[in-house]
Amino acid sequence: MQRDLIHSAPLLGPVQSILLAFPVALFPAALLSDIAYLNTAEIQWSNFSSWLIAGADVFTGLLLASALLSLFFGKFRGRGRGLVCTVLVAVLFVAGVLNAFQHAKDGWHSVGTFGLVLSIACAVIAILIAIIAHWRTSHREQRS
Q: Which Pfam families does the entry link to (predicted)?
């Protein structure tokens, strides 16, 4: 008698999932506060966005460290999706730091077009990482 066993699991563990939750929440929130600043010219929205980006960068850095450790020593070893996820987290970290530097500028130039584009890129990349990381893959194993 032959049986098919199907294994399905997300890519990230529980700690990495918690670390990923912060950039997924904070980068889109920073994008929304950038849009609010561009519509109202109230400087507090820009300050709020800067703090959101800084918080997202802290957790993205921790997630990047964890992803690199998993890539070289743990769960991601030899897995294509783990490498893609790690590269995207590194890109998100670099884009987030650039976004923080852009938002540290004074006045209108802190957000402007480039700051908004960086905020959009960070929000999209963070959501893309979450989709890739939590996409369940099925491995079919046959036993007799």
A: DUF2231
